[in-house]
Amino acid sequence: MSAYVIVDIEVTDPAGYEEYKKLAPGTIKLFGGKYLARGGPNETLEGDWKANRLVILEFENAEKAKTWLNSPEYAPARLLRHKYARTNMVVVEGA
Q: Which domains does the chain have, with CATH numbers?
């Protein structure tokens, strides 16, 4: 069953975040993931959520997504993301 990683990113240093954007895609692909949405315009349809930069990734399953997130291959990019942005991230399994 596919799993989706949804990330709400508040970029605090746009120049530094560009470094992250160069490193992350290769690691996502390495673990079989792909981008479904990557920072395009978003609109709140209900509730109080004021999303920032939204990213949606698709993986084969939740375990694959978690393996990517915690992998040594992604670690350098993850450090940059934590340095240059604040994020909320969830994984949800598809129907």
A: 3-93 (3.30.70.100)
